[in-house]
Write a structure and sequence with these properties.
The chain is mainly alpha-helical and 116 residues long. It is built from 5 helices and 3 strands. It has one domain (2-102): 3-Layer(aba) Sandwich (Rossmann fold). The protein has a 3-stranded parallel sheet with strand order 1-2-3, sandwiched between helices. β2, α4 (75-83) and β3 (88-91) form a beta-alpha-beta unit.
Length: 116
């Protein structure tokens, strides 16, 4: 799944960094400070909820938009995702159009806030 998302984003001129577990994702986010993070919940080492919370509760990283993109479609999962600070919660299966639209929406919102 990660490669399908990566290929779709790169085809739309996005630079993509990937991580295979939550700790690696957290480390890369802190090192690179990306414009946006797409985060799965079901990650080895540190789950997506914890990664999101650790970034969103840190002044240096709290403004990075986070999309939780997961197979977990229960309402309680989405509620928890938003409680830990996710800016959007999307469920699989992979829909490139919806994902790209949400990425563009969040990046535009982020740019508008920076311009204020």
């Amino acid at each position: 799944m990660i490669y399908a998302v990566q290929m779709q984003l790169e085809a739309n001129n996005f630079k993509v960094l990937t991580a295979m577990d939550g700790q690696e994702g957290l480390d890369k986010a802190r090192e690179e400070k990306p414009d946006l993070i797409i985060l799965d919940l079901m990650l080895p080492r540190i789950d997506g909820y914890k990664v999101c919370r650790m970034l969103k509760f840190d002044e240096k990283y709290k403004d990075i938009p986070v999309i939780m993109y997961t197979a977990r479609a229960q309402e309680a999962d989405e509620k928890l995702g938003l409680e830990v600070g996710a800016d959007a919660y999307m469920t699989k299966p992979f829909d490139p159009g919806k994902l790209l639209a949400k990425i563009k929406e969040l990046l535009e919102k982020d740019r508008r806030q920076d311009g204020q």
